[in-house]
Design brief:
This protein has one domain. Helix 1 packs antiparallel against helix 2. The chain is an all-alpha fold. It contains 2 helices and no strands.
């Protein structure tokens, strides 16, 4: 697997981790006075990015870009 196939997967994974951190920050720092949906929006973005990552992995496998290996 070369860098062309690894880079988009790693970028999406990085955005997932960033969104998870944002959700955790909003969960701990928001006192409920400002925008009450920031936690929900951050976690919705994380779930959407996770689904995109899963789809990229499935498509990479189907097109032969990602090869499974045995243990």
């Amino acid at each position: 697997m070369d860098i062309i196939t690894k880079l988009p997967l790693l970028l999406v994974l990085g955005f997932i981790i960033f969104s998870l951190g944002r959700g955790m920050y909003f969960l701990t720092k928001d006192d409920g006075e400002a925008d009450k949906t920031r936690v929900v929006r951050a976690l919705t973005v994380r779930v959407t990015l996770s689904l995109i990552l899963f789809a990229l992995l499935i498509l990479g496998y189907l097109f032969g870009l990602i090869q499974p290996h045995g243990l």
